[in-house]
Structure formats: structure tokens, C-alpha cells
Amino acid sequence: MSIFAHIGNPRSNKAKKNVASSLASKALVLVDDTVLGVDTMNYAIHVAQKTGCELFAAFVIDTASMDLLLQMKIFVREERDTLEEEMLAKGRRTLETVRMACANKGVPVQTLLLKGCLHQVIDQTIRANHIDFLIIGGWHNTSTRKDTASTERQLVLDTVDCPVLVVKSPKR
């Protein structure tokens, strides 16, 4: 007996969608306003179309790094607050772009504007919403350029308890 006997012909599109949706019913995509962020968003929309999974899109404002810069006296309070307001506006614009792109493709999406330490906020969101897998954009972590964003994305991989799909941009 085939492992697909209970759902019919495994080569049919309906059977493939049933198998995919039984494996993952909720996906979280981490979005930003970069070229790679747009590629990642489009890939997540495609995955949601093909699998029928529920799509969540999160824009995270790294307030933990802002607070650290404030404590180190690199920022004064006004600079930190201004940066946070700018990031909130950017997050709202980015999530509106996600909503429009999803609507154009007929994919329902729940958007989340989050604040805090990236890997902690993503882990909490995954747990709270019972997310089955995470979709994030790739990054380069070289010895000459090891920035906070790369470190935080690596921490996401290390801490979440679900599969992570890393989207790499095609060579342009």
C-alpha cells in the first residue's frame, strides 16, 4: 500500500497540496524593506499558495539594540526615540506592501509589527501562534563583516523549535 493511498494519486496537484498542508498549516515570514526581503516575501506568498498554509508576516524593530546604544551613550534618548518612530513607520509601510501583495495573489495574511530582541520576539511569536515553519531571508556572515543583524538571524536559527526555510536571492 502506498503512503499516499489515503489521499489518492500522489502526482495530482490536489494530493500534493493535501500532503503539504498536512505537514505545515502555519508559516511565519520575517519581512523587511530590502531587495532580499521582497524576494523572501514573494517566496512565502508562493509557498502559501501552493500549500494552503496560513501565512503570518512579521516586521521586527530591534529595540534591544537601540537600548544598548542608549546605555553605551552612543545615542541620547531623543535619537533613540526618533529612530524607533522611523522604524515603526517603515514597518507599517512594509507590512502594508505585504498585505497588498498577498491580496493581489489571493493569499490571506496576518501581519505583525513587533518590537524587541529579534530572536526572542520571533521565538515567542512562533510559540504563541503555533507556527509550523519560519521563512527568513539569507545573510552573509563573513569574518570581515559580522554585524548584529547577521548574529541575530543566526540566533533565530539556533533558538526556534520549528523548521526554518532560508531564502537566498538569485544572483542579479
What's the CATH class, please? Alpha Beta
Helix/sheet category: alpha/beta
Q: What's the name of the CATH homologous superfamily?
A: HUPs
* Envelope shape: globular
For the structure shown, list the relevant keywords:
single chain; 172 residues; alpha/beta; Rossmann fold; five-stranded parallel sheet; 6 helices; 52% helix; disordered N terminus
Sum this structure up briefly.
The protein is an alpha/beta fold and 172 residues long. Helices cover 52% and strands 17% of the residues.
What does this structure look like?
By secondary structure, the protein is of the alpha/beta class. The protein has one domain (23-167): HUPs (Rossmann fold), CATH 3.40.50. It contains 6 helices and 5 strands. A 5-stranded parallel β-sheet has the order 3-2-1-4-5, with helices on both faces. Residues 1-12, 15-21 and 142-146 have low confidence and may be disordered.
Secondary structure layout plus pairing:
Elements: H1 13-23, E1 26-30, H2 35-51, E2 54-61, H3 63-71, H4 77-105, E3 109-115, H5 118-129, E4 133-137, H6 148-159, E5 164-167
Parallel strand pairs: 1-2, 1-4, 2-3, 4-5
Helix pairs in contact: 2-4, 3-4, 5-6
